[in-house]
Each structure stands twice: as C-alpha cells, then as structure tokens.
Structure prediction request, 54 residues.
Amino acid sequence: MAFNAVVAIEILLSVAVIVVLLVHEATSKLLHIAAINMSLLGLLSIFLSCFYYY
Prediction:
C-alpha cells in the first residue's frame, strides 16, 4: 500500500513538472514573439518617421 502511494506521488510530481515546463515553454515563446513584434514595430515606426521627416 505504501509503495503504491509513493509511486502515485512520484507520478503526480513528474506530471506536474512536465506541465510546468510546458506552460513555461509556451509563455516564454509568447513573450519572445511579443518582444520580436515590439522590436519590429519600433523599427517600422523609426523607418516611417525617417520618411515622414525627410
């Protein structure tokens, strides 16, 4: 009985770790995409302002 409980706890911990890693991976990818989009928008606005002023 105790062995089953330990195995169940280890399975739950490993599943929790996998879920946390997946969520972290997804959020870091989203943050990365957002950062890329922000930098692209910044470059575009600089480019447009250069054309606007000259």
